[in-house]
Amino acid sequence: MRHEADKAVVTLAGEIDIGTAPRLTAAVEGALESNPVRVELDMSGVTFCDSQGLGTLVVLNRAATRSRSVLVLAELTDFLDRLLHVTGLHQAFTIQNDDAADADGTGDAATS
């Protein structure tokens, strides 16, 4: 996780599933403790996400909202983009891709 002026960036890699969801939850909850305006999840390295992973993202989105922060899913892979559209969850999240990041000046590489 990396902290910047008003945001925390968490870089994800591999699968988001029942085995990894607790670590993701801990990372985002830890990021929220510093009261950032936004928590960005760099999703560019995510290769798989099951229903447990989707549920975890929804819960974390709510947690961020309760903390007066915004959870941002950044750099979605094609797989994740399709998954969010098929499940109808695409509209539930704030999503940022390279083009949006470059346009608002926040598009820098994320590190763990």
TrEMBL record:
Pfam families named among the record's database cross-references: STAS_2
Molecular function terms, GO-annotated: anti-sigma factor antagonist activity
InterPro entries: Anti-sigma_ant (IPR003658), MlaB-like_STAS (IPR058548), STAS_dom (IPR002645), STAS_dom_sf (IPR036513)
Domain (STAS) ranges: 1-89
Residue stretches spanning the membrane: none
NCBIfam families: ant_ant_sig
Similarity annotation: Belongs to the anti-sigma-factor antagonist family.
Name of the protein described by the UniProt record: Anti-sigma factor antagonist
